[in-house]
Amino acid sequence: MPAPIRLRELIRTIRTARTQAEEREMIQKECAAIRSSFREEDNTYRCRNVAKLLYMHMLGYPAHFGQLECLKLIASQKFTDKRIGYLGAMLLLDERQDVHLLMTNCIKNDLNHSTQYVQGLALCTLGCMGSSEMCRDLAGEVEKLLKTSNSYLRKKAALCAVHVIRKVPELMEMFLPATKNLLSEKNHGNLTKYCDTSSRFCFFDPFLQVRILRLLRILGKGDDDSSEAMNDILAQVATNTETSKNVGNAILYETVLTIMDIKSESGLRVLAINILGRFLLNNDKNIRYVALTSLLKTVQTDHNAVQRHRSTIVDCLKDLDVSIKRRAMELSFALVNGNNIRGMMKELLYFLDSCDPEFKADCASGVFLAAEKYAPSKRWHIDTIMRVLTTAGSYVRDDSVPNLIQLITNSVEMHAYTVQRLYKALLDDISQQPLVQVASWCIGEYGDLLVSGQCEEEEPIQVTEDEVLDVLEGLLVSNLSTPVTRGYALTAIMKLSTRFTSVNRIKKVVSIYGSSIDVELQQRAVEYNALFKKYDHMRPALLERMPIMEKTASNGPTEIVQTNGEAEPSVVEAKHPPPVTQPTNQVRTVFSLYIITKNTSVNGLKIDFTFERANPNPNIAVITIHASNSTEADMTDFVFQAAVPKTFQLQLLSPSSNVVPALNQGTVTQVIRVLNPQKQQLRMRIKLTYTHKGSAVQDLAEVNNFPPQSWQ
């Protein structure tokens, strides 16, 4: 067989390939020749063939068939063979393959070889891919080489010992004596591998200093005594390190991280934060980014120290680098508190006006949260939220609209001011849909305050009922309005039927949208038309102003429900009901309420109310409803909802079933708990929805004839 080509010739040939397919053909041809050579046990060219195989492996082609050949080269007495063999083992083998265990004896022999370079090859291979079994078997040889006087071998033995300890942590004790001896080593490469004390800062080696600082960080974490011993040396490094070059900044940064991680004294922590503050003024954007990230991690524990650099942090909001801008924004929100809320919000709102779209959603959410937590007044809170909606309304999160509605509802003294501000905002811009939705809702609730000019916080505007209705009708036909926004506008117009005198105009608008191609809008209009025609006597009560809403925890028993943007009158649904304590004193009264449904052929749903006094709290009335069905078909998907005036608190527990059986063969029961601390007469609006004979049915009613025993 002719001699195989050399490695450099193979490289030159492969580089002449013009296509991937041509290269693949060359590789396959050469691999076939190498396989033939391996089968013939050709010892002369094994080293050359394995070297070529490793090159092909580096190009991404399979070379696993050369694993055993690597072991044969390792067992060779030639250094050149061993070198390629060990290199192949590190590239082609790992601890997941049983073949690597066959190397253990060869590595052991080479660790005791008379030539330091052969020993070095064995140490590198063991430190690279040695398994836990190999590390246990060869730890003794590594420990001996760690004590040798040869600095070349000590360095490689130190690296190998690190790998051994990571694989078999219980062997750490074996290496500790040798590690202590390394501390007197003059070679910084060895010290970098095994540094164990803070007394080596006299070396002007930044790599060594960084490693020592990282080690101090580990030793001092959670240890009061060790941390106290480090304070002085860390203070010296922090104050004496030269920062004219980047290497000094790297050492200072590691010093800051160490100070922050150990239990350092307060003055030292302030010094560390001041260093980060100086980093913010550095021209290198990487240093500025690192400083902002570090300050963000420490702001919760050292808030006052970070506050001293607030102006510098705010200036970073103007940086051209988007990563720095984002970190500066996050840190700015973390610095907001009750004392600086006005100034910080001014800066952040300016940033919101000019920032890229990718920042607007997070910035708007941050402003909302900060304003809710630290608002100095309700007017300021409302003005701030409206500023966000007018500048970045399209980027705010979905929950911003109901949250602002709740804020406005609960700020009773600000209703006239808010509705006037929102009305003027609508006249200027209707492209920001969240703003338009909140404004529509507010006009529907407080339109009477708008036209009456009762605003005391600013000069009232003169506006007529027709002008208000013109604006809302404009939203219904605008191409900028989303379906949800149109729903808000139509509901607002409907609510104004109890606040304005232009009822006929409102009826016409509502009737027009009864044939809308938007199914949701059409359904609303049909229901509102039915309210005008069949339940007009109930309309004023159903459309009265919303009571004050209280937020409830997500795992609490009740939840305020607002569907598709329509603010219904404090409708409450049961969620995760708590156990009900059975009362001992019971006052029981029974009366019936018959509901006339939309489908006149269905007239068999009956709701009975029974009353009990809760004990020990006499202010709580426990009302149980019993729903029965006298028709011949079951009523499925049955849902009972209720609302009470704002002076009451209502809790609706889960029903016994969602199916009301036909022919009075059973009842659905549901418990209502009503807190009435002022002993006022109980009034309740109820809403029933169910499916009967394939048709969806929805009914509204008001109950105001509760017996005195239920509330006195």
From TrEMBL:
Organism field: Oreochromis niloticus (Nile tilapia)
Pfam families from the UniProt entry: Adaptin_N, Alpha_adaptinC2
Record key words, sorted: Cytoplasmic vesicle, Golgi apparatus, Membrane, Protein transport, Transport
Lineage summary: Eukaryota, Metazoa, Chordata, Craniata, Vertebrata
GO (cellular component) term, any one: AP-1 adaptor complex
Superkingdom of this protein's organism: Eukaryota
Gene3D superfamilies xrefs: 2.60.40.1230, Leucine-rich Repeat Variant
Protein name, entry field: AP-1 complex subunit gamma
Family annotation (InterPro entries): Adaptor_Complx_Large_Subunit, AP1_complex_gsu, ARM-like, ARM-type_fold, Clathrin/coatomer_adapt-like_N, Clathrin_a/b/g-adaptin_app_Ig, Clathrin_app_Ig-like_sf, GAE_dom
Name of the gene this protein is made from: AP1G1
Biological-process GO terms, alphabetical: intracellular protein transport; vesicle-mediated transport
